[in-house]
Amino acid sequence: MSGLKPSRRWQPAFYPFKKEKFGPRLLARTELLIKGPVWGCRMCGNCLLQETAFICPMECPKGMRNGPCGGVTPEKNCYVDETRKCIWYAIYKRALKTGREEKLLEVLPPLDWSKVGTETWGDVFRQVRKVGALNFIKGNLSKDKSKRTETWESVFRTVRQPVWWNGDSEYHPPAYTEPVSDLEKKLKNGEFVVATEVTPPLSSAPAKLIHDIELVKPYATVINFTDSSSANPKMSGLACCKVASDLKAEPVYQIAARDTTRTGLQGAAIGACQFGIKNILCITGDSPRVGPSPTADLNFVDIDSVQMLWILRRMRDEGIYLDGRKMKYPPKYFLGAATSPFASDPVLQAIRDHKKVNAGAQFFQTNIVFEHGGIDLWLEELDKRNVLNKVYILIGVATLKSYKVARYLHDHVPGVNVPERILRRMEKAGDKESEEGVQIALEFIQAIKNKKGVNGIHLMTMGWEAVVERIVKESGLM
Ligand code: SF4
What we know:
By secondary structure, the chain is of the alpha/beta class. It folds into 2 domains: 22-105 and 113-160, no CATH class; 182-474, TIM Barrel (Alpha-Beta Barrel). It contains 16 helices and 8 strands. It has helices at 22-39, 87-97, 121-131, 133-141, 145-160, 182-188, 207-216, 237-246, 262-274, 305-317, 346-359, 374-384, 403-412, 420-428, 433-448, 468-474, and strands at 193-197, 222-225, 251-256, 279-283, 334-339, 363-368, 392-398, 456-460. An 8-stranded parallel beta barrel has the order 1-2-3-4-5-6-7-8, surrounded by 6 helices. Bound molecules: iron/sulfur cluster.
């Protein structure tokens, strides 16, 4: 536990990749000696403390630099290590309390690994010298608040936002008008859409995959393929999407940051276009903590989902790679993101989702929701933030096949809470439990389909693809 931060320090500080000269090394050591105990600094080389309410986000085991993942437990603990608080929940709470919440909207860069473990104070001193020490002092003493902010930012924005990133808190509308996919076209036309998912196979045999795609294709606008959900290896999303495209079904290509580097992401997006895949959903992905052993690295992911959106949006709309190089033929896709309205708190989640929309999200697919009344608060918050008119929302609906499935979701899937009344209904249904699961889904769809801001549903069947036809027909969404 360090002085000004609400949690304990988990990971050790980073070391620089190469040996620095004596001066920078001494400065780095001094910086760590002060910032370590006070803020739990890990020496990431790109200090964001001012944007994160003076709590270092690098304690997050996923290395999230743009807000919480969807796995916060109901007690607001980190699902990767339940013995400590979710550091991002603490950041959001303090930011709200101290009036710094709008700072949470700035899209922050991934780490520059050549700077990790080195000092940042040197960067600040050099920037102050550039601006002029006297100008910097005078500007900060000005009575005019905007002058003070401008002077401060002339130093600190340059330090935290490298030119290759140039993140901001603004909304960037897509730089095209004609819909790129059928999903986008239908949403633009005001249709209430149905998305569903087909579970990727655990082996290389495609027969079941093909069968399931054919089964749901007539009833859904798009089919999602998860990217090794629960950190459990399955057939890649790209391969499944290609199979779906060949069968004339429109896929949503889910890419999890967990298994993707910045280089891999850009390559995957360009590659997807070659297969005619037009919808990409950016997610951070479940921690390897919930996957099978031996456990993969729990310490860090290279990029988070907000950064993925920012990179892909700029590739498409500005025709540039992450490093700023120009692309000759930029890829085209409709960009989506996942959201978990009830992870942490709907008000906090709305801030995070606002940021995703600014970064490039054009549609949301939510995690499973059971309480239709509960999403009202989240939708209201998005509306207050003027976000509802910039993004399409597909609410996640679960089709529970059995009490066991409901219990498993509640106990083991990060970010999903099955209310007690639903668990009781499923348990009491006995051998009619699958029928009860269908009724729960149908009641839920009726309750949400006319809500302002809801543009469709995302049916999560968890391997029960055969139920899609019935749900779509009986809910009147055919
Ligand atoms: S719950 Fe998610 S965001 Fe929060 S500390 Fe854990 S991994 Fe990070």
